[in-house]
Amino acid sequence: MRVDGKGRIDRAKPLEFTWGKERFTGFEGDTLASALLANGVRLMGRSFKYHRPRGPLTAGSEEPNALVTVGEGAAQEPNIRATMQELYAGLTAQPQNAWPSLERDVLGLNDYLAPFLGAGFYYKTFMWPKSFWEKVYEPFIRRAAGLGALSGAHNPSRYAKAFAHCEVLVIGAGPAGLSAARVAAEAGLDVILADESWEMGGRLLSETEEIDGQPGAAWAAAEVAALAAMGVRLMTRTTVTGAYDGGVFGALERRGHHAPHDPERPHECFWRIYTSRAILCAGALERPIAFPNNDRPGVMTAGAVRSYLNRFGVSPGTRVAVFGNNDSAHHTARDLLEAGVKVTAVIDSRPEVEIDVEAPVITGARVVGTKGRLGLEQITIEEKGAQRPLLADCLAVSGGWNPTVHLTCHMNGRPVWEPSIASFVPADSAVPGLSVAGSAAGVMDTFGCLKSGASVAADVARELGKAPPEPKAPRAGSAVYRIEPLWHVPGKGRAWLDFQNDVTVKDIKQAAQENYASVEHMKRYTTQGMATDQGKNSNVAALAILADATGRGIPETGTTTFRPPYSPVALAAIGAGAQGSGFAPQRFTTSHKASTTRGAPMVEAGLWYRPSYFPQTGETHWRESCDREVKLVRQTVGICDVSTLGKIDIQGPDAAAFLDFVYSNLFSTLKVGKVRYGLMLREDGHVMDDGTTARIGENHYVMTTTTAAAGQVMNHLEFVHQCLRPKLNVSFISVTEQWAQFAVAGPRSRELLNAILDTEIDDESWPYMSCGELGVAGVPGRLFRISFSGEHAYEVSVPARFGDSLFRLLVAQAEAMGGGAYGMEALNVMRIEKGFVTHAEIHGRTTAFDIGLGRMVSAKKDCVGKTMSQRPGLLDPDREQLVGFRPVDPEATLLAGAHLYADGAAPVAANDQGYCTSVAYSPSIGHHIALGFVKGGRERLGEVMRFWDGLREVDTSVEIVSPVFLDPEGERLRG
Amino acid sequence: MVKLIANSAAEGLLPLEGPGVTVAEPPMERLTSLAPLHGGLEAALEAAHGLALPKPNRTTGKAGVRCVWFSATHYMLIGPEPDASLSAHAAVTDQSDAWCRVALSGPRVAEMLSYLAPVDLREESFKRGHTARTLVGHMSASIIRTGAESYELFVFRSMATTLVHELEEALIALP
Predict the structure, then answer these.
(1) What ipTM was reported for this prediction?
(2) What is the pTM (predicted TM-score) of this model?
(3) CB within 8 Å of A204: residues ≥ 6 apart
């Protein structure tokens, strides 16, 4: 219910929203949780395992219970904490993990089975029979388990990611954070202040405490304004989620959660913040106490009750009882009374404590039970051995406060037990460059937090070489925080520790009993500390109970490892910009537009897009286009963009010596104006890449690589130069992007070129494997007489700015001659007809010997990989060697990936003789042809083998033939 | 005689306008990579073009000619045809067509680039005349600060479409 005169909500701005099937009204400044509580709704979720009815336990990001699904349709987002969801007009939220409704949830049955479903139940039960796991158990458990669900549709939300740089990152804008940021900014440092809420101030927004005579929230607002004026970068709605090496912090900014879904604006932004120093002022999280049936809606932390009352103007109940083991709980009673809410009792577990409140006080007592099926109605108090009931629809519980140490543990730092506050505090220097101030460091009073923030920031400023300002001491409360540990109240019924994973005190004890006594084992056995809240509410209490059960102290028991992220981060935010085609940059050739205009479907080659084929009117199947394109190259002339092949410009007096070392064959003997095919080995002696290299000057070569391996080859050259041959004076640079290069292939290629070259060429001036510079339609270009098709062919290149124009010109010329453009399919068919290898054959496990190019490893010199290529195992005549396959039945279809067996042999692994790497239908020959590897294949020409692909049901016979199907003498090349 | 038409790398893709940011493609200029080979490049560059070789992450320049540090082993001479004397001291390679260059100007350029590039572009860290080889989105890039509110960006020519797309996305991300 709303409480008049309380809260930071704007009552002039009512907001309508939908919860489940009902419509409600809240106010600007509400969270979904506070607005629901104001409307008398306490039941907001069902627990993970037993489907117990649950309401909000907290008012912050640590919320384990009130998880809801926000939004509708494809953009619906599950597992949103209602305590973090800002209210906006038209907000739609649905309960999750309940069917048919939150009030009547069928799987609530699980709760009756609880005696059988304790810790380790799955591990013990679903072991047998083994075959049941995949077919029966797992599908069943998957259906039953889980929290909310995604829509199953493509996520239409936009996400962003960004980088920020600063000198001091202050994490958390409570009293400590605000005063730290102020000191750092006044010292002249570049400061970022990040806070997970939409309003800065931290606990000051939730408490009635005063600073310098004004309400804490007003003081915070003034400080924030001052920081903004000083140029501090204020990042609200931003949770720092991880601490990483080198002063890098990850942070999630919620950009669109507080407004209707807008696909045009980022929903979230994931930041990487690079900082010289960081100050963690993340405060502390209040922990509940484990007593029987402590999980009913209406039971919440005492601090959360104050948040709802003081920040949101809501009392979570009309008759509130307070139960605690420390003085901070008493504030809740005082604030409620002051607001006119009935407080039925203040129960303190400590026998000797003076409590100054105008309500019934019961000391040395405990809450041992609760009643109320869908919400708290009554509690049971035990005092001096006697139990009595008490009516209460809200119970504010405080078991003490745990410093928020999480970020300090992200680099394997372990927090240190601090008995005075019965909790863990961060270890010194757990994360390099990260200091801790305020409650996160165990300081539990406001004055202390202000002082701690200022003094830590002053130290940081001095370490960064700046003079901090004179220390100021605002007046604020400095009450001593007194606590006596109380982890568990025994009694009849389950005492819940981890609300999110339904882990009880009994589960922890059972884990200890079954020798899962290490804290990490206990966590995995019971699932305590997992899921969205990562044990923020339960960790310390669970450790204390485990310590007790194993007869060790809490410090000896230790903590589990806190890892990033501190609170959940959507993968969509981390991967912002990488959805769909954003996954990788797209590289387009200069002929891209001309090709797509011609309707060419594109295939990806690395990051490049290349035309698959160029369909013509009437062609209904790619094979028709491909066959036509092969024929036009073989009969007239074809044009193909080959710019994507890597081109590396190599210069220097030692260029020749360098190439002799990286290539298996000789390049120092190549004459200027000539091109040679080269083979490059990896250090382990296998083939890395192949390509042609042209010598265009005495000390100037241009190397080509395959499209896919261009980057790898460049890296390799750098490695060889820097590490293996550092004294060679040579330099290289990629010129792949500088030149647009086109293959002009076919018996009439020279005729076509002579129409556009500035100087006519003939066989004498440009014999096979020659190269040089010459004018191309008035532009300085380069011409290489090389061929990947087996035809009389050239590659002509011009600066990329002319690429589009030259491609259009070449294709127009070719078409006028009866030729045309050809794509990757035709290119592949022609190279298979000629037996040229690609990375389908030089796939990383083959040697020069295997592909029949053993003689290319020159005996006259050393090269990278030579020695290793001579290992006996790599020269074994029984190794799988490159061969061609011809189908015995000319109508048969061959498929790459098929395996080969002796004729009539069973297709089992033991009989495997080799495999097929490339296939094509050869229009020149009139049937399928294929390349592949067969054991000792070069000696087996003529042998008929079984060609079998069990996946795609191909079982046929092939004859082993030479891999060169067409023009083995190379007469057409020289034509 | 046929004549080939020259297209710039981002032909038809720019300009682009956003809140506090203008993206345009500057006129094509001669780009020449210089990789020292024999020593003496510093003096040769000074003599031929009146420029010092820039230190790492810096540029040098005067009217009509600039030299940009481009990697541990390469410099980029922007503007003039390289003087023939440079070839005696360096591997000289034409790169005029290898890069897509865009000029960014406006008060929010650095902020927009923070959505794309991991480098520190704050006023005091990245001053006029500074340069960095870094990433822009997933692309390898070079960023130069050319003025108080102006920057120049280089990515591979083939990635022009992706660059413009990334810039559009970054403009949308600006709050």
Answers:
(1) 0.97
(2) 0.94
(3) A174, A175, A211, A216, A217, A219, A220, A446
